[in-house]
Amino acid sequence: MTSVYDRFFNLKGKTAIVTGGASGLGEEYSRVLLAAGARLLVVSRSKKGWTELKKFAEENHGQADFFQKDLTDENAGKAIVEKAAASFSKIDILINNAGVQIRNRLADFQDSDWKKSDRY
């Protein structure tokens, strides 16, 4: 018998990209997608958390790949799509989770702060 979870959240055969996918909320998104059967490309500027996520994928018979990329790089988007296409041949889902938090009072923001936050 098919469970309700399998009927409504079956992502087998789908490919997902999660930016910022190795830690915090991004890691949780990654785990849920893997548990639902999606193939996953995790994009992060740091490898922190990747080992645990890869282990989770293997334990759940999932397929995950990692791409270390800083999204403030203006060529990041193109590089991510090329990596996903090379690894999985198609992209079905994008969770654009990566972000930056700049803690300044609005009056204290510099042009460089706006430019950095705008890249995400």
Automatic annotation (TrEMBL):
Signal peptide: none annotated. This is Gluconate 5-dehydrogenase. Keywords: Oxidoreductase. PANTHER family: DEHYDROGENASE/REDUCTASE SDR FAMILY MEMBER 7B, DEHYDROGENASE_REDUCTASE SDR FAMILY MEMBER 7B. Belongs to the short-chain dehydrogenases/reductases (SDR) family. SUPFAM superfamilies: NAD(P)-binding Rossmann-fold domains. The keyword Ion transport does not apply. It comes from Oenococcus alcoholitolerans. InterPro entries: NAD(P)-bd_dom_sf, SDR_fam.
